[in-house]
Structures are given as structure tokens and as C-alpha cells.
Amino acid sequence: KNIHNLVNIAYEKKIKIISVFDDWNFDSFSKTDKSKINLPIAEKSDFIIVKTEAASRVLYKNTKLSSFVIPDMLRFKSYESISHIRNPFEVTWFGMPTNHDSLVSELKKIEASNIKINLRVITSHINIIKNKITILNLKNINFQFIDWTPEFNKEIIKSDIVILPYTEDQERLVKSSNRIIDSLNLGRFVILSNVEQFKEFKNYTYFGDINNGFEWLQLNKAKAIDKVLKGQKYVNEFYSPESVSKMWRKIINQALI
Q: What is the pLDDT of residue 29?
């Protein structure tokens, strides 16, 4: 209500309004959809900002409102890229509780590949996901559960590999690329689901089924390390604070005209 009141006052006084929308998925069954809150704000905004091209397309499809894409920027300083990949594979998954299901749904397929991995799970509400994983009775995956903190990058770099499974649904379609770019920036090899919204990163990751990624990695460790080096360079060029700030500067300058 307070946000709507502020927008209404700005609109009446002809003050330029820049609005940023995260994860606006237009899925009425999703707990994260905020259409009732977002739409009145968007309709009165001079500039609508979303995080990805996919989110921009979804917004236009549902509202016919145009938007500008300004991605999340890198959250951490770069870390030295991996120079070798250990066996068993040292792996991290990190994410918020809303993404727990995307990890759990992949674990049996990874288990079936008969590849031994040590998997660090960095998240909040650990007991919830721990209980879901325990009942799967997995033998090839050794788990370590770590509470999320703002400095979770220090935990990620203890592994060589990051897995980022994404389910193909409306909620994930509008997610930002922040976990992907952070993982590449930290010099880790990323195994990423081949979802349309993140095809930008297919040359810098294993882009496909998560379990197949481990099988590919067993035979292509040198290629994987090369992908990491190129990926780290790519995200530093296009997702650095300097690069993203230039995008914001352009929007703000337009608003001042």
C-alpha cells in the first residue's frame, strides 16, 4: 500500500518513475507471483527494468508493456580459476529454499550414473531439504549441508564444480542469472540445465542434463577448465559492476531528459 501511494504521488506530480521487477512470472499458482502488486506500479512507470531478456518477453506477453533489461551484477571479487578437477568430484549446489525442489528432483538421476561425488549444499532452512534428501537413500553422493551466509562465496570455492539444475516452469523462466555468473566469476566449472533463458552461457558451461554433465566431465577435464577460463572472462566483461552501472547510467540519463 505504501509503495502504491508513493507511485501515485509521483505520477500525479509528473515525477519520472523507474521500477524494477524481479521474478514476475504471472503464474497464479506460484507463491512468488506478485501481479496484483506489480501491475499498477508498472502501468504508471516511465521505465520498467527486468533482469533478463526472457523476463522482458514474459512481461510483454502478459501486459503489452515494454521493458529494459539490466542484469544482476557480480556480487564478489573474482577468484582464481580451477586448474584441475579432483576425484571424487567436489561439487556445490547453492540457492534459496524456493529452489530446493530443482536440486532434489535431479539427485536420483545423478545417483544412477554411479559416479562418486561430494556435494556441498549451501542454503537456508537446511532441515527441510536434508529430510527430503535423506529419504532418497543415496549411496554415491556424500552430502555436507552448510547454512547460507552473505559470504557464501567462501564456501563455493572449496569445490571445483557447481551444479545449477533448473526446471522448465514459469517461475524459473524469469529468474536472474546471478547464480551462474557468480559461479563462473569464482572460477568454478558449472553444470547447467539447458533451459532457453540461459543459452547465453552454453559455451562456458556444460549445458544439458545434470547427470550427463558429470559423465562428460570425466572424459573432458581439460575442456572444462578451458570453459571456466573463458566464462570468467565473459562475465567480467558483461556483468561487472562497471558494465552494469553503465546500463543504469543510460536509463537515469534518459529519465532526466
A: 79
Grid cell digits, residue 19: 521500477
Cα within 13 Å of Cα(251), Cβ side: 19
Per-residue exposure over 102-121, b if at least 16 CB sit within 10 Å of its own CB, e if not: bbeebbeebbebebebbbbb
Q: Is the overall model pTM greater than 0.90, yes or no?
A: yes
Q: What is the pLDDT of residues 100-155, one digit of tens each?
A: 999 999 999 999 999 999 999 999 999 999 999 999 999 999 999 999 999 999 99
Q: Which amino acid is at 170?
A: Q
Number of other residues whose CB lies within 10 A of the CB of residue 175: 24
CB neighbours of 242 closer than 8 A, spacing ≥ 6? none
Bridge-partner residues for 122, per DSSP?
94, 146
* pLDDT tens column, 92-112: 999 999 899 999 999 999 999
Question: What CA–CA distance (Å, rounded) separates 13 from 129?
Answer: 49
> What is the distance of C-alpha 60 from the center of its chain?
22
The residue type at 27:
D
**What does the alpha-carbon distance between residue 24 and residue 94 come to, in Å, rounded to a whole number?**
22
